[in-house]
Amino acid sequence: MEYFFKPSALRSLKKLPKADQVRVLKKLEFFFSQEHPLQFAKPIKDKTLGSFRFRIGDIRAIFDVEQHRAFILFIGNRKDIYR
Question: Which domains can be identified in the chain, with CATH numbers?
Fold first, then answer.
């Protein structure tokens, strides 16, 4: 499955410490390289944020899926991301 970053998600990713940036990118690559990447995702109750989320330590990546493409909408610390 292909994945794309929304510009604001890319800016949020760049604000993270370098070690976290690398960890997030490696995990996203791992998740989306799998045959069924949504098996690692959890649905989000508040659909205004997005449809699914990945947990990467204390960081959450919120995304939507449309026609075998994932669009990363938000990336941030779990304490801040759902506000």
Answer: 2-81 (3.30.2310.20)
- Which residue, among 71, 67, 74, 66, has the nearest Cα to 49 in the 3D structure? 74
Kindly give the pairing relationship between strand 59-66 and strand 69-77: antiparallel
Q: What is the pLDDT of residues 45-79, one digit of tens each?
A: 988 899 999 999 999 999 999 999 999 999 999 99
**Cα-flanking dihedrals φ and ψ of residue 22, to 5°?**
-65, -45
Kindly give, in sequence order, each residue whose CB lies less than 8 Å from that of residue 2, ignoring residues fewer than 6 positions away: 32, 68, 69, 70
Query: What global pTM score does this model have?
Result: 0.91
